[in-house]
Design a protein that fits this description.
The complex is a heterodimer of chains A (477) and B (1072). Chain A has one domain: Up-down Bundle (Formate dehydrogenase/DMSO reductase fold), CATH 1.20.1630.10. With 477 residues, chain A is an all-alpha fold. Chain A is 67% helix and 0% strand. Chain B has 1072 residues and is an alpha/beta fold. In chain B, the strands form twelve sheets. A seven-stranded mixed β-sheet of chain B has the order 5-4-16-15-14-6-7, covered by helices on one side. In chain B, strands 21-23-22-25-19-24 form a six-stranded mixed β-sheet. In chain B, helix 11 packs antiparallel against helix 12 and helix 11 packs parallel to helix 14. The chains are: A mainly alpha (477), B alpha/beta (1072). Chains A and B meet through helix 3, helix 7 and helix 12 of A and strand 29, helix 27, helix 28, strand 33 and helix 33 of B.
């Protein structure tokens, strides 16, 4: 291409041009106008319609929860032997989704993956909402909700402390820590953008609210220096949490002795699965937002491509874990263990296990092909499959393992009730409602961070001249 | 206005002391420090009298806070009735025990009633009675719930309208006058079979005084055939009782002597010969021939499936073999006299079984179901005679009994119009009488005046002139003879709750005699013998029996001359086939003949064989179901002649082909809340000529899958897992520890614990051993546990959801009878094994580590204890329990109606239990039901986990009394074997033994040391405190297929080869 005009020393970019983060040579002000413009514009009609739908689902879900609280856990289909069914399945499902956000914000930040800037804000928000949905379940699934505070290490006259050996207690600590750090991380990242919103706000209410939330941000050097240090520290704090939360959640099962639960492979397998499911959910939410708000220049095909690759990688890890579980069951020569896995794939719930395997392992293999990674329909399809598949995975591990354990006399089936279903639908309602509120009132892309990956933010940057190389042109167009 | 106190308030006069130079200096800093250190008001509160202003302020504040925090609001305490009139020895909160007994058709069941402040809460067997070991059956355990049944008859009804006891007495006076006038003409009494000397005395007096009056007896399960055979062949006043302690070889021809036809002493004697503690040489051998799995069939070493109508033919074929082997001429003559049946029985089976009976001559016993025709009964007596059983294993005893007519006699007489007054003092003939009598329409209607003494207002109540509420046996005086003849008292524990009358009360009124204790005392005079009467009477009540009052051996002998008369009516029914199906009507294991249909504990008790709850069903073999193209849950119409019934199908392993079983007692039309809408009425198919089975039935499918049958156990195969370990008696002799290292437990590595476990250092260490070799699976322990531990019922709907609350369950597995897994008949003709499973009290309990709130923890004496108040109901413990013995209160089963259905509800609610109505449903337990609760056990609320506690309340009671005995520094070790758990106490087979495993003298420690002792899932290193003694079978090696009997668990196929197809085919409710 450029061989004829090549200078003696070829710059790195020329040999292997990096795809730009923001397309079409957009300026800083363009980005501010685009992103800050979304909350500033008049509320579109579709937003009202959508939030009416999701809000009513959320409302009905809350009614279901109230019904459960006033009546008893029996309104669900849980039974003996299946003490945990959709409740913990959904808990783990939502917690898993909550993993992508912090991974993108923290781990990718530490790894200097600059492409994260376009998606981290929305992903983090999604994390928070997913964790909220997740946290509902452990709270309401217990028999005596009004005594849930027994889980907290509160000094009491009986001197009974929580049982620190119980993984369920570790869960409480892990999830609450994760949520706290995630909220701080998300909010810290929002502060400069909220200041932008404050400065641009025209209404008094907007000015006051954004002003309050912006914590007096002025954009001074000192503030930026502190901000970045704080951001780095929080990223450092979050990184182990990404790995620990789902590991801890997996301990609920791994430390028990039920065949199908009692597995040492669970922590890494659950973490990979969580990232897998989380990325799929980020794409599920962001692809429509990208189309609606025309974010194509900021949230580019390259971003989608990279995320698809991560889905492919983590999906393959999950597939490896499934296979390894089967191998260990075979090789471990424990008849109970073997039975659990034969029952998983050929027992009465075979359809759930095969749906899981197909959705999580087989279908993501489409992403080996570049064309599928760069096609909205296939990407969205695969993500929806992964969302469903990851739910099935939790159901298969949690409920199906319980249906048939050691003593065949106590085997039993599990069937969900309408309350089970509607509570789950309700959490989707809550999740999407929160997300709609988020995109309506907050900058959904981190403006200040995106600006740092613009070529213009590079002090050594030289805009392409007319006599620039072909490759440079190609790369920037 | 706020008063500011300075410190000190003002300069004092006199000598002045100071704290430091700062004070002298009076600097503002010092003043400030003082203010901070001694804040305003503090001095006043501590030292000064309360000022008016402060008093008002504090009171006002308290009142306001009380209003805000509602801390001052509490429920008004009501119904506090001081226990002013106390019995001298009564200590509130401490149980008082009384002896009594429960009348049954086979005789009185000796009992001890536990009462708290005058209300009986629990019934237990009376071990002071020589024939009893303190065991009971399910019915005795559940009888206490009948006492507190909210649906029982509560008022005297005249023409269906509430009346009064005074009016009834006036009526009885009039009846008595009439009786005296006409010598009792036109008067009939209908009674049940009971062994009550006082009642017999009353009846004798009645007959003497009113000779024209007629007395009839009825019980749906007594066909009169057996009694007729006994009377013909042995004479009157004779009773034959099997002596299981003498019997080495027992053949049961459809005689469920461990189930329906059991007596508790019989089970005790049988299991004593079954037990193998060290040696199995004395173990008896049981052959069973029956059409369905019974408890007896499940215990059998050799079981043969045989249609009930073919049992006579089988008996005849066997008699032939026996006659040939023993050269018994009587038997041979009998065999030749009856036309031989089609045969088709396994000849080797017959021959070897007969051989075994002959070889053990004098120690063998043949039993036949009591409802078979008299000639077959006679044949079986002759068989017993041939093997010298009469007088040795079948004892001939002298028993006098008041005799009367049958229900058929009464019906005939009533139809002729000869009965003007009928007093029905027992039973429910309008429901249970054979249909050909058409009792309700043409018998009861024909009698102008019917008085009914009934515990419930039921089918028979309709159209009666008087309905008198019957008193429970715990509310009335009486007496009973135990099945072995021992004289027992029936003592009232409480005044009749609803003014009920007993049979004796009513009879006494007609005879102008005194009922109650005096009547029994009068009878007792003839039993007491010489000596001080009062002393004997007190001893009788205290002990609950008169020692050495059992029936004496009768002088009567087998009268062969009368055989021909007996054989005259001998007919052999034709063979069964798809177009001539037979249907058998056994009594139900749960509700008997229908008298317990309104007992919720029994309704929810899983049937010991089918594990069906809240219903009965038409049991059918797999092959027959296939041939007739019906499946489980299908509604079918069964036609026997003109009679028709629509009922649900249940595919039952072990059922004979083309032989259906439908137990009696269900499908009641007038019954309380509990029994309403349960099961199908088998009486509608039963006629006088076929009291036990009907032949020539046809089946038509009405509605496929039209009925929900709810079972508590859905999977019937052990899946090759060594859960119940079984061997043979021969194997036990050569390798007594055969059960120790089996399957997963074969090579357990020694475990090194990462945790330091809390020490188990209490003086007693509790444990339990269950002897699978004697456990017959009768389920008395399940009901006993329910009664003792205030376990609620949950209703059919909740059982369907897998939420039954029983703390102990009896796992029942079917296994390949011949050990061949590829046998196509595996599901049709399996062996049956049972295993009671309750909390195993693991020392390394998996439930304890996972509970986040420390609600389930370990005690120093080795109990896995539950703190209900701490439990928040995460259900993690249940998930992690490998035995799944923990039970969760998914709803508030105690305070919500579990039986009422939602009539008109939203879709998803309709037809469901009211439990789902949450705060909109009814609230609160019936007042009368509260009386039954054991005050020493918490009634659990919604949302908490519960499970077997090893009856911790009994342990604690023992601990307290030991503490009192031992004083401050004494030894707190509870004496050896002084506590029994409720299940142990109820077990007639003594299969459950609880006690201190640390005490080498205790029974449980000795059993634990037996070589056949094993722990469930030992490889998990959970260190269970409950262990099991392996099951033994005692096969006759010459019998067909004997080589494989008792070997199910030593041949363990690789599990994956077995599970694949089996699970895929039957996701739910099937049999594998």
């Amino acid at each position: 291409m450029a061989e004829t005009h090549a200078p003696a020393t070829v710059p790195f970019e020329e040999r292997m041009p990096r795809p730009p983060m923001v397309l079409n040579n957009r300026s800083m002000s363009w980005i501010t106008n685009l992103i800050a413009g979304i909350p500033e514009q008049k509320t579109p009609l579709w937003w009202y319609i959508t939030i009416a739908i999701t809000g009513s689902f959320a409302g009905f879900g809350v009614l279901c929860i109230l019904y459960l609280l006033f009546t008893g856990v029996g309104v669900w289909g849980n039974n003996i032997p299946v003490g945990w069914a959709w409740d913990i399945t959904n808990f783990v499902f939502w917690i898993g989704i909550g993993h992508a956000g912090t991974l993108i914000s923290a781990i990718l930040y530490l790894c200097r993956q600059k492409w994260r800037t376009s998606i981290n804000r929305a992903a983090e928000a999604m994390t928070l909402f997913a964790v909220i949905c997740a946290a509902i379940y452990p709270g309401i699934h217990v028999g005596r909700v009004w005594m849930v505070w027994f889980m907290a290490p509160v000094p009491n006259p009986n001197w009974i402390w929580p049982n620190f050996r119980s993984p369920l207690l570790w869960d409480v600590f892990a999830v609450s820590t994760y949520f706290t750090v995630s909220v701080l991380f998300w909010f810290l990242g929002l502060v400069p953008d909220l200041a932008t919103m404050r400065d641009r706000a025209r209404s008094k209410v907007g000015k006051f609210c954004y002003g309050l939330l912006a914590l007096g941000w002025r954009g001074g050097n000192r503030q930026w220096r502190h901000y970045e240090m704080a951001y780095l520290i929080l990223a450092g704090l979050s990184t182990p949490l990404v790995l620990s939360v789902h590991s801890t959640v997996s301990f609920d099962f791994a430390t028990s002795l039920i065949p199908g639960w009692h597995t040492t492979i669970f922590p890494p397998y659950f973490v990979a699965g969580a990232i897998f499911g989380g990325f799929a959910m980020v794409l599920t939410l962001m692809l429509p937002a990208r189309s609606i708000y025309k974010l194509h220049d900021v949230f580019t095909w390259n971003h989608i491509d990279v995320m698809c690759k991560i889905i492919l990688l983590t999906g393959s890890i999950v597939g490896y874990a499934y296979t390894m579980e089967l191998f260990v069951a075979f090789y471990g020569a424990n008849p109970f263990e073997r039975f659990a896995f034969i029952n998983r794939y050929f027992g009465p719930y075979w359809w759930a296990a095969w749906s899981m395997f197909t959705c999580n392992v087989v279908i993501p293999q489409l992403f080996w092909i570049r064309a599928f990674r760069r096609n909205l329909i296939t990407v969205f399809f695969v993500c929806m499959c992964v969302n469903a598949g990851m739910w099935y995975e939790r159901f298969v591990i949690i409920a199906v393992s319980l249906t048939r354990d050691f003593l065949p006399s106590s085997w039993g089936m599990y069937y969900p009730t309408w309350v089970d279903v509607m509570t789950f639908v309700g959490t989707f309602g809550i999740f999407t409602t929160f997300f709609l509120i988020f995109i309506r009132f907050f900058p959904m892309i981190a403006m200040s961070e995106v600006k740092t990956v613009l070529p213009a933010a590079d002090p050594h940057y030289h805009p392409p001249t007319i006599g620039g190389t072909e490759s440079m042109k190609e790369a920037h167009v | 206005m706020k008063r500011v106190f300075s410190h000190p308030p003002k300069e004092s006069s006199g000598k002045h002391y100071w704290r430091g130079s700062e004070e002298l200096a009076k600097t503002p800093e010092f003043q400030q420090w003082l203010q901070r250190e001694f804040p305003a008001g503090a001095a006043e509160l501590e030292t000064d009298a309360v000022s008016r202003r402060n008093f008002m302020r504090l009171m006002g504040g308290s009142m306001a806070l009380a209003g805000i925090g509602l801390s001052g609001c509490r429920r008004p305490e009501s119904y506090i009735v001081p226990y002013t009139k106390s019995v001298e020895w009564l200590i509130p909160g401490k149980a008082v025990l009384y002896t009594t007994s429960m009348p049954t058709r086979s005789g009185g069941l000796p009992l001890i009633a536990t009462t708290f402040e005058g209300r009986p809460t629990k019934l237990e067997g009376n071990p002071l009675v020589p024939s009893s070991n303190g065991g009971t059956d399910t019915f005795a355990q559940a009888a206490i719930l009948n006492l507190y049944d909210p649906d029982r008859a509560k008022t005297v009804l005249e023409e269906g309208k509430p009346s009064s006891a005074d009016k009834l007495e006036a009526y009885l006076k009039k009846v008595q006058g009439d009786l005296q006038q006409n010598q009792g003409a036109g008067f009939a009494l209908l009674l049940d079979y009971q062994q009550s000397p006082t009642r017999d005395r009353f009846l004798t007096a009645f007959k003497q005084r009113y000779p024209q009056a007629e007395i009839y007896f009825d019980d749906p399960l007594v066909a009169g055939q057996y009694e007729q055979a006994v009377e013909t062949l042995f004479g009157t006043d004779v009773v034959l009782r099997p002596a299981f302690d003498q019997a080495s070889v027992i053949l049961s021809l459809d005689c469920d002597f461990l189930g329906i036809e059991q007596t508790v002493d019989g089970v005790k004697a049988f299991s004593a010969r079954r037990r193998a503690h060290g040696s199995a040489k004395d173990m008896n051998r049981l052959y069973s021939v029956d059409n369905r799995f019974t408890l007896t069939g499940g215990m059998a070493d050799h079981r043969l499936r045989c249609a009930a109508s073919q049992i006579p033919a089988f008996a005849l074929a066997l008699a032939g073999k026996l006659a040939a082997a023993t050269n018994d001429r009587v038997l041979a003559a009998m065999v030749s006299q009856v036309k031989q049946g089609a045969g088709g029985f396994d000849d080797v089976w017959l021959a070897e079984c007969a051989n075994d009976l002959v070889v053990h001559k004098g120690q063998s016993l043949v039993l036949l179901g009591s409802r078979y025709p008299a000639w077959v009964q006679g044949l079986v007596f002759a068989m017993n005679n041939a093997v010298s059983a009469l007088g040795s294993t079948l004892r001939i005893l002298h028993r006098t009994e008041f005799k009367g007519g049958s229900l058929q006699d009464l019906a005939a007489k009533a139809k002729s119009g000869a009965v003007k007054r009928l007093f029905i003092l027992a039973g429910n003939p309008a429901y249970s009488a054979p249909v050909d009598l058409s009792w309700a329409e043409s018998v009861q209607q024909k009698v102008p005046e019917v008085l009914r003494l009934g515990y419930y207002e039921d089918e028979t109540t309709a159209g009666t002139k008087w309905h008198v509420p019957e008193a429970h046996f715990l509310e009335s005086w009486g007496d009973q003879r135990a099945p072995d003849g021992t004289y027992l008292p029936v003592q009232p524990m409480i005044l009749p709750l609803f003014g009920g009358w007993s049979q004796l009360d009513l009879l006494a009124k007609l005879l102008s005699l005194t009922a109650g204790a005096d009547a029994v005392r009068d009878t007792f005079k003839s039993v007491a013998g010489s000596g001080d009467f009062e002393e004997a009477w007190t001893a009788f009540l205290r002990q609950g029996c008169v020692k050495d009052s059992a029936f004496r051996v009768a002088s009567a002998s087998f009268n062969t001359d009368r055989i021909p008369t007996l054989l005259q009516g001998a007919v052999l029914p034709g063979p069964v086939n798809p177009s001539a199906i037979e249907i058998v009507f056994p009594a139900d294991y749960k509700v008997d003949d229908g008298r317990y249909t309104n007992n919720a504990w029994l309704q929810e008790l899983p049937d010991p064989i089918t594990k069906l709850t809240w219903d009965n069903a038409v049991q059918i073999s797999k092959a027959t179901a296939k041939a007739l193209q019906v499946a489980e849950g299908d509604l079918v119409e069964i036609s026997v002649g003109e009679r028709r019934l629509i009922a649900a199908i249940l595919v039952a392993p072990g059922q004979a082909d083309f032989s259906l079983s439908l137990s009696l007692g269900y499908g009641r039309s007038a019954v309380g809340k509990v029994g309403h809408g349960t099961g199908f009425n088998a009486y509608l198919l039963r006629s006088s000529d076929g009291p036990y089975f009907a032949t020539g039935a046809t089946i038509k499918k009405v509605q496929p899958g039209g009925y929900k049958l709810i079972r508590t156990q859905l999977h019937h195969s052990m899946e090759g897992r060594a859960l119940i370990r079984e061997g043979t008696a021969q194997e036990y002799e050569s390798n007594p520890a055969f059960a120790k290292k089996v399957w997963m437990d074969k090579d357990i590595e020694p475990n090194i614990s990462l945790y330091s476990h809390p020490p188990l250092n209490a003086p007693n260490q509790w444990g339990m051993v269950v002897d699978l070799n004697t456990c017959i699976g009768c389920s008395a322990c399940v009901v006993a546990c329910q009664a003792e531990n205030n376990i609620p019922i949950v209703g059919k709907d909740q059982v369907e959801h897998g939420r039954e609350m029983h703390w102990i369950r009896i796992d029942r597995y079917f296994s390949s009878a011949d050990g061949d897994i590829n046998n196509p008949h595996l599901e049709e003709d399996p062996e049956m094994v049972v295993e009671p499973v309750m909390c195993q009290h693991c020392e390394n309990a998996p439930c304890e580590t996972v509970c986040p709130v420390n609600a389930t923890v370990h005690s120093e004496d080795g109990l896995n204890v539950m703190a209900y108040n701490r439990c928040i109901g995460t259900r993690y413990c249940s998930n992690n329990c490998p035995f799944k013995v923990r039970r969760f209160n998914f709803f508030n089963y105690n305070d919500r109606p579990v039986l009422d259905k939602i009539e008109n509800g939203l879709p998803g609610f309709q037809g469901k239990q009211q439990l789902y109505l949450g705060p909109f449903g009814q609230w609160g337990m019936e007042e009368i039901s509260k009386l039954q609760k054991n005050p020493n056990v918490t009634v659990r609320s919604r949302g908490v986990m519960e499970k077997c506690t090893y009856c911790v309340q009994r342990i604690e009671t023992a601990k307290i009394s030991q503490r009192i005995k031992a004083g401050v520094k004494g030894d707190l070790t509870i004496p050896t074997d002084s506590i029994k758990s409720a299940c142990q106490q109820a077990c007639p087979a003594e299969a459950i033994v609880f006690g201190d495993i640390k005490d080498p003298e205790s029974q449980v420690a000795k059993l634990r040391n037996l070589p056949q002792n094993y722990h469930l899932l030992e490889y998990l290193n959970i260190q269970t405190r409950t262990s099991y003694l392996a099951r033994l079978r005692n096969p006759n090696l010459k019998m067909p297929g004997a080589a494989k009997i008792g070997h199910i668990n030593t041949i363990h196929e690789p599990v994956e080869e077995r599970i694949g197809p089996a699970t895929r085919v039957e996701p739910e409710g099937g049999n594998a």
